[in-house]
Amino acid sequence: MAISAGIHVSPEFPATLQRIDALGPELDANAPAAEELGRLPEDTARALLDAGLIRAELPGNLGGHEFSPRQLIETVERLSRYDATAGWTVMALQLMTASTAAYLGPVAAADLFPDVPNGDHALLAGHGTRPGRAVPVEGGFLVSGEWQFASGMAHATHIHSAIQVEGSGELRILAMPKSRVELVENWDVLGLRATYSIDYRCTDVFVPETHTYVGTTTNPPNGGAMYRIGLVNMAAIGHTGWALGVGRRLLDEMRNVAAARTGSRNAPVDTAHFHAEYATAEARLRSARAWVREVWEGVEATLDAGGSLSAEQDTLIRLALNHTTWTVQDVGQMVHRWAGSAAIRRGPIDRYLRDLATGTQHITSGPVVLQNCGKWLSGALPGARWEFLDLIP
Hints:
Structural class: alpha+beta
Helix content: 40-55%
CATH superfamily of the largest domain: Butyryl-CoA Dehydrogenase, subunit A, domain 3
CATH class of the largest domain: Mainly Alpha
Order of helices and strands: HHHHHEEEEEEEHHHHHEE
Number of domains: 3
Number of strands: 9
Strand content: 15-25%
Oligomer: single chain
Shape: globular
Number of helices: 10
Strand order of the largest sheet: 5-6-2-1-3-4-7
CATH topology of the largest domain: Butyryl-CoA Dehydrogenase, subunit A, domain 3
């Protein structure tokens, strides 16, 4: 597919959702074992790759399906309803792999993405905060650093990391083979255990300049209009879909618990209080989802017309993610109040509550981002612009 000036709405979307639904029961059944393993089993990871879930976000001119933002949100949402850790892992691999494919030039694209339709391409994992040091040398950089939270690293072939160029202070993103870094086996947490979100480090590793790009770029050499939203807004797509999927699954599980216990002696789920709280949670989740679609519909329309996102649109993308994440956290607290022993014994509610508690701590949904959204929307910084998660006057 040639590079398109507008938003590409992929015809592969319905079939991809069907493939997720076909895999869903197996993902759900294998989730406890994946937790014990600390990562997705290889056959599970291969099934997700074969279902086209990474290709979904890759640029069309490189052989990807190049889903639109709203298609990607719904894809991650659907997957996360079956298994939150599978949803998080795929979301991370999608983001790191697709942004690398979109923003690197032809030399790196030929190296890392030689035959996407037949599955011959790099898979990237890594992290963009706390950048490493990049010392300029002929042809590239000597890179050193320590990075955290490399979700999906068990399945990656290459590393995605932020680096800061010594002297200029320029922030760049690199792609290099996973074999060039030392993996730190330190992912010991209560939630999202199967995402293998470990730390990693390296010292004085040469990375060609061709395999780096400016971290704030919104001018992709590959792909269509979607990639003009920039790296942070691409991250918001996956995180938003993940939160929506987790919220939906928790409410579905609570409904199952209520159906099993209704009519029993002194059942709390037979009270008007429970019914009112469940209805309120449904309304809040559905309202958050509707607002997400409204925000991204506006973003897609702007990009489709050839425009650039306004500061308000950048703000609303971040705010919709924050609002959705914490709305789902409130939904989880409602489920925890009413699920009784199902919330503490091993099972989907217990697992999803732990995954949610971990997922809410991601920096993109943190309080500082919310405060910055408020600064812009309230008019406190009317001329400000967003740079990653910071609001710059």
